[in-house]
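Reopening: RidA family protein still failing for me.
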Amino acid sequence: MKTIITTSKAPAPIGPYNQAVLVNGMLFTSGQIAFDPATGELILEDIQSETKQVMENLKAVLAEAELTFENVVKTSIFIADMNDFAKINEIYGAYFNDETAPARETVQVACLPKNVNVEISMIAVK
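Support: Ran it again with your exact input. Result attached.
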């Protein structure tokens, strides 16, 4: 049985999907972009601010499922420009302990929703 996870502390979906689905102790998040849930505005001043907002959105979704970044086992990072990798990695890395960090892939893509620069999704385990 699956449980839909929804929180007002992360952006509402902009299509036919949910923020996350919990099934058999595994949480699958949808990709998050840098929408500020309080204002509905995109945070695009710089790649660091954008990445921080993405991670805060994911943090809120995890918290709604009573999980933390320590529960994350896999992440997928999609970026518009691989030249931003180091800056994204610096912000992303601050949310994890190096010894227990999840597996991940980082992929440069041609275009992301709303023309953002980074989107991240996660899989976590209770």
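The longest helix spans residues 47-64. If you still see a failure, please send the error message rather than a screenshot.
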